[in-house]
Amino acid sequence: MAHEGGCLCGAVRITIDAEPITARQCWCRLCQYLGAGSGTVNVVFPTDAVTTTGEVRWHASIADSGNAMRRGFCPQCGTPIFSMAESRPHQTIIRAGALDDPGLIGPQAVIWTDAAPAWAHHDPDLPHYPAQIPPVA
Question: How many CB atoms lie within 10 A of CB 29?
Fold first, then answer.
């Protein structure tokens, strides 16, 4: 079953021909910038299953974990859509909010809880980690 998503203005559309590998809620400081103050929910898919139409603008940065990352945005409306770790080119991270069905998969863990603001709420039913955990395969 294909999953679809895109940006706020519709200039970027994505199709994913695979099921999600995992999802995590992240509270690292960079994700707080991307999430306008809250953490982000990030869904991991195999890169070879992701097709994109429309222009995506990329920003390179080093994550709190030390990983070299590229983050993809719609240049028209600014919606954050993608993250890709240079060390894991076979995986594409898509923001859950960019999916047409943001409820496709919920977070399976909460990471970088030590970086979260004091007011942040962490689902007590999920495992919590103070920083980065090992990536999925």
Answer: 11
